[in-house]
């Protein structure tokens, strides 16, 4: 059971827009801590996709965007491409009983 | 180009130990926090441990506290993870990753990642 909740899977056709949600609580996202997103292509290591909720590292296309509100965050991907098919993870800091970095369970994006 | 290369994974029996290493190039790892993250085959990511740039913060996930020890050698631009009292549930790919420059340890993120090393715990 992950501290951050993501849908197990989402899908969309090429060119479409999809969103992936990441729901936390008052000890993590709801406490104002940033959310970061990672993309993991099949058989590879994760890669930073979005940091500080809405910032893209250099080299990440502007088709990827992030937002945060209340106890949740979202990753949006517009103009879906087949190469976007991957697992996506959100991550934040949890200031609960044990201070810890926490991840969402991951969302498998399928490009139809 | 920043590169992180993990090594030291392999097969270990329950209760035994392993030491993972992460060699960093193209980046002065001494200027940022460093972390270990693991991923059981076919499953999601779990943060394992992190160490701040000046070693004043060393933190562990509850699942490994008391069994794993993180350390770093800035002169060698390397990160280590000593895994003791291994359990079958420790079986995973272990990734090392850098934190960002100039960020608070706890609110940072994982900037650059290695390719991972597989640890298998089985009798």
Keywords:
heterodimer; A: 112 residues; mainly beta; six-stranded mixed β-sheet; 0% helix; B: 123 residues; 10 strands; globular
Account of the protein in words:
The complex is a heterodimer of chains A (112) and B (123). By secondary structure, chain A is mostly beta strands. Chain A contains no helices and 9 strands. Chain A has strands at 9-12, 18-23, 36-40, 47-50, 64-69, 72-77, 86-95, 99-103, 107-111. In chain A, the strands form 2 sheets. In chain A, strands 1, 3, 4, 7, 8 and 9 form a 6-stranded mixed sheet that branches. A 3-stranded antiparallel sheet of chain A has the order 2-6-5, with no helix packed on it. Chain A is globular and about 40 Å long. The termini of chain A are far apart. Chain B has strands spanning 3-7, 10-12, 18-25, 34-39, 46-51, 58-60, 68-73, 78-83, 92-98, 117-121. In chain B, strands 2-10-9-4-5-6 form a 6-stranded mixed sheet, with no helix packed on it. In chain B, strands 1-3-8-7 form a 4-stranded antiparallel sheet, with no helix packed on it. In chain B, strand 4 (34-39) and strand 5 form a beta hairpin. Chain B is globular, with a radius of gyration of 14 Å. The chains are: A mainly beta (112), B mainly beta (123). Chains A and B meet through strand 7 and strand 8 of A and strand 5 of B.
How are the SSEs placed, and which strands pair?
The complex is a heterodimer of chains A (112) and B (123).
Chain A: E1 9-12, E2 18-23, E3 36-40, E4 47-50, E5 64-69, E6 72-77, E7 86-95, E8 99-103, E9 107-111
Parallel strand pairs in A: 1-9
Antiparallel strand pairs in A: 2-6, 3-4, 3-7, 5-6, 7-8, 7-9
Chain B: E1 3-7, E2 10-12, E3 18-25, E4 34-39, E5 46-51, E6 58-60, E7 68-73, E8 78-83, E9 92-98, E10 117-121
Parallel strand pairs in B: 2-10
Antiparallel strand pairs in B: 1-3, 3-8, 4-5, 4-9, 5-6, 7-8, 9-10
């Amino acid at each position: 059971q992950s501290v951050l909740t993501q849908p197990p899977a989402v899908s969309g056709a090429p060119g479409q827009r999809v969103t992936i949600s990441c729901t936390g609580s008052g000890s993590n996202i709801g406490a104002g801590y940033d959310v970061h997103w990672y993309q993991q292509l099949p058989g590879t290591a994760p890669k930073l996709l979005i940091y500080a909720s809405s910032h893209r590292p250099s080299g990440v296309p502007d088709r990827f965007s992030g937002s945060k509100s209340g106890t949740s965050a979202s990753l949006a991907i517009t103009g879906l491409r087949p190469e976007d098919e991957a697992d996506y993870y959100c991550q934040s800091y949890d200031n609960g009983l044990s201070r810890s970095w926490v991840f969402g369970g991951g969302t498998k994006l399928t490009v139809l | 180009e920043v590169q992180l290369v993990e090594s030291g994974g392999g097969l270990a029996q329950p209760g035994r130990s392993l030491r993972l290493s992460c060699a960093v190039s193209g980046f002065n790892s001494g200027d940022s926090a460093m972390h270990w993250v693991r991923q059981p085959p076919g499953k999601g990511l779990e943060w394992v441990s992190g160490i701040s740039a000046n070693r004043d913060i060393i933190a562990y996930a509850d699942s490994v506290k008391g069994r794993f020890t993180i350390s770093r050698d800035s002169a060698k631009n390397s990160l280590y993870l000593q895994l003791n009292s291994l359990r079958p549930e420790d079986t995973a790919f272990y990734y090392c990753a850098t934190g960002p420059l100039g960020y608070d340890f706890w609110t940072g993120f994982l900037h650059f990642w290695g390719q991972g090393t597989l640890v298998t715990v089985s009798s």
